[in-house]
Amino acid sequence: MNSICTPKEALQKLEHFCAYQERCHAEVVSKLYSLKMTSDEIDSIVVQLIEGNFLNETRFACSFARGKHRMKSWGKIRITNELKARQISSTNITLALKEISPEEYENTFENLAERCWNSIPEKNILKKRKKFCDYLLRRGYESHFVYEKAKEMEEK
User: What are the CA-CA distances from residue 5 to residues 8, 36, 126, 141 (Å)?
Assistant: First the structure.
């Protein structure tokens, strides 16, 4: 099995890859495998990327959490699950979730809930509640928030 490029070329490619956007270790390792690097070469390159501060799992997790919450209005459960899927440590996940202030989290949830409730044309209140709850739960919001908000919206 021949490498597509030398370890030095791979390191340069991965420096650009990491500089363009925050990456997690799993993405970097996957990219290196696609460049046909050996396990030893991959380990060496990952260490060099960390030492050069191109790869930082904590920074990635915090950036990911902030971005997904602000841009896609994801809740903490969805963010946690997505970070776990990327093999991020629970310590880094906890730090990442602290990046979202309680006020910002609540405002995002309230705005999303209002928008969602008003956009469901369903006349049957039970079906409307189900669609509303399903949507917010898929977005990763805590069930007690979602069900409380559903009750509140029905009473309006």
Answer: 8, 8, 59, 44
Question: What is the C-alpha R_g of the chain?
Answer: 21
- Write the CB contacts of 155 (distance below 8 Å, at least 6 apart in sequence): none
Closest CA to 4 of 27, 40, 38: 38
Q: What distance in Å separates the CA atoms of residue 74 and residue 65, rounded to the nearest whole number?
A: 9
- Looking at residue 53, its amino acid is N
The per-residue pLDDT for range 38-87, each reduced to its tens digit, is 999 999 999 999 999 999 999 999 999 999 999 999 999 999 999 999 99
- Judging by beta carbons within 10 Å of its beta carbon (0-12, 13-18, 19+), is residue 74 exposed, middle or buried? buried
For the beta carbon of residue 141, count every other beta carbon within 10 angstroms. 24
Task: Check: CB of residue 51 under 8 Å from CB of residue 86.
Answer: no
What pTM was computed for the model? 0.90
